[in-house]
Amino acid sequence: MPLDKSIQKVLVIGSGPIVIGQAAEFDYAGAQACRVLKDAGINVVLCNSNPATIMTDQAMADEIYLEPLTVETVKRIIKKERPDSILAGLGGQTGLTLAMQLDKEGFLQAQGVRLLGTDAAAISRAEDRELFKEAMAEIGQPVIASDIAETVDQALAVAERIGYPVIVRPAFTLGGAGGGAAKDPEELKIIAGTGLDASPITQILVEKAIFGWKEIEFETMRDSVGNVIAVCSMENLDPVGVHTGDSIVVAPTQTLANKEYQMLRTAALDIITALEIEGGCNVQFALNPDSYEYAVIEVNPRVSRSSALASKATGYPIAKVAAKIALGYHLDEIPNAVTGKTTACFEPTLDYCVLKIPRLPFDKFTTASRTLGTQMKATGEVMAIANSFEGALMKAIRSLELNVRALKLDKLEGLYTDEIEDLLVQVTDERLFVVAEALRRGFSPQKINHITKMDIWFLEGFQRIIDMENELERCKGVPSADTLKRAKEMCFADSYIGTLCGMKQAEVKALREKYGIVPSFKMVDTCAAEFDAETPYYYSSYDGENEAVETSDRKKVLVLGSGPIRIGQGIEFDYCSVHSVWAFKRMGFETIIINNNPETVSTDFDVADKLYFEPLTAEDVQNIVEQEKPWGAVVQFGGQTAIKLAKALTEMGVQILGTSADGVDAA
Fold first, then answer.
1. pLDDT at 249
2. DSSP 42-61
3. Using CB atoms within 10 A of its CB, is residue 152 exposed (0-12), middle (13-18) or buried (19+)?
């Protein structure tokens, strides 16, 4: 079906300030939606209150209202601008809640404004805990034993009936805000009270806790005629009990047997069909590791935080496709912008491993509780792509900006083994490093699985990293070509290999170049190389064929991104990076971006001429410099992350455009 010609003027609602659970991914989604609408010749009215976003830039909309995201404000804008439609599914929970309030009051109907994409009834069925339970029962999808409560006394009665421990999930909140786990009535009184206060409709779900089950997500897409696909499957390293925003997530799923994968994929597609979602939808499952028993945890009937990760992991632009579906297009009519040959109906296939690690703020909030639970604490995240789980893990750790190069925290080395075992029980942001330290002390993956409920497959991946560390330490000098190649295939940094072998970083680099062990760059193409990709989007590998081909004879400019969102470094630097790329493009330069943040506009595959999804360290950047040989590099738009690399780039022979490395040092 072609574009719905009755859509002439659309109000796009943004997500407001960056808060825990709602970060730059909604700027990315909203910016994509605005570009789609503008390309379709539609008048775009935008309401958002965040000045640091690309979404609120003049280039993105015809009319921009930098106003508070309240019902009253949006009503005034609708009365003044008279849009015929409203697009709310790309503004996170903020945009969705606002649209639902306007619909419930009858304001949208009175003003003749329709909700594009998923309708209000479908959103309610997914968001309202009671309606959701009923909808799942109708299609035979299992849910966890639970019930709704609107007072603390009701919550206590539910818990008494279903048994402790329980999880409290407030309705219509963000990042699990106000929720938590309770093991007895005393804890429940406190958590239920907090949850009821946090919910805009004073409603909580009291749910039987199924700690230890696997947590699996499917990012799905459906159009108005019922075409439906699974864009990406994702698996949390942490079992149920840790908010998925605070979990390490791997895509595609790694530990599921084909029967389990097909069972959950079918369930996800059945759910999005039954709820009649139009656009993107995130479905979360809990899976019993010892049987085929599963339960639906929740459904997000909108572009979610996971959508940005799934988009960047697969190269499938979820927000862009969702916006086109909202305009009336069907999946088989929307071209795949990456291949240029297939359509959006073509389900992505991954021939690599993607890993997301959350960026938590405990380096700034040193006295805060590091315990992770159902309430999200991460401010941002990093993503890494490699040919193996181990490689993606090592790259992601380097990307975190925490001054760690590997699965090693110095402060853990001085602890007794009994203390390490005690720490394994605690679910904190440092458990990743505690697991590695336990393996170094001789704990078996089976023992760690018994304590943490992390899948053996992941723990064996950790073990292979520890085994490689031990092999490099045994070299006592110069490692063999075979050892060095296997270490680089696991994405060990030259500096870390040097530390383990007793060599300088430059000596390790010279040795591997002598052995012919040099990085090649692979392409993210959504189809496992079944079709040629037209968009140059790369990650590094050490397995031969280099796919990063020359695209032009223009002068190249390298723009360094700002890495994960953290306290003190938000999306304002992404805004600057993207604008610098656009300016260099207008001046005729070939632009290259290096960044590792999946939530941002800068890591959209069609912003720069080339995108490298890599850690922002001197060594990783040097590999790209040697491949691309840029004329100059820009560091002043990537925050502290990029500024720190100015000296290293100068030493590589790359001229710094703008303030020099010496000028940066002086300042």
1. 96
2. -EEEEEE--TTSSTTSTTT-
3. middle
Phi, psi of 279 (to 5 degrees): 125, -150
Token look-up 């796919």 returns 547
Q: Are 492 and 471 in contact (CB under 8 A)?
A: no
- Find the mean pLDDT for residues 197-223: 91
pLDDT at 339 over 80: no
How far apart CA 458 and CA 390 sit, in angstroms, is 9
The predicted model scores a pTM of: 0.92
Cα(508)–Cα(477) distance, integer angstroms: 10
pLDDT (0 to 100) of residue 18:
82
| Residue 340 CA: distances (Å) to CA of 39, 47, 220, 325 | 17, 33, 21, 18
Quick one: pLDDT at residue 527? 65
* Mean pLDDT of the 402-413 span: 92
What values do phi and psi take at 13, rounded to 5? -100, 125
Supply 97's token pair.
Answer: 């809640």
Calculate the CA 452 to chain-centre distance.
Answer: 23
The pairing of beta strand 114-115 with beta strand 166-170: unpaired
pLDDT at 306 > cutoff 90:
no
Q: Is the pLDDT of residue 108 over 80?
A: yes
Q: Which residues have CB under 8 Å from 207's CB, separation 6+?
A: 144, 145, 146, 162, 166, 167, 168, 169
pLDDT band at residue 17, thresholds of 50, 70 and 90? confident
CA distances from 488 to 357, 473, 500, 524 (A): 21, 15, 13, 20
pLDDT at 509: 96
Work out the mean pLDDT of the chain and round it to a whole number: 90
CA distance 183 to 194: 16
Structure token digits, residue 198: 């946090």
Q: Which long-range contacts (CB under 8 A, 24 or more apart) does 175-179 make?
A: 175/19, 175/20, 175/21, 175/22, 175/243, 175/245, 175/375, 175/376, 176/21, 176/243, 176/245, 176/374, 176/375, 176/376, 177/20, 177/21, 177/375, 177/376, 178/204, 178/375, 179/204, 179/374, 179/375
Please tell me the total number of residues recorded for the chain in this structure: 667
Q: In this predicted model, what pLDDT tens digit does every residue of 559-597 receive, in sequence order?
A: 999 999 888 888 888 989 999 999 999 999 999 999 999
Residues 6+ apart with CB under 8 A from 11: 45, 46, 47, 74, 77, 78, 81, 83, 85, 86, 87, 113
Q: Is 318 buried (19+), middle (13-18) or exposed (0-12) by CB count in 10 A?
A: buried
Residue 264: partners with Cβ closer than 8 Å, 6 or more residues away = 216, 218, 233, 256, 285, 287, 294
Dig out the tokens for 224 from the structure: 């108005």
- For residue 529, pLDDT over 60 is answered with no
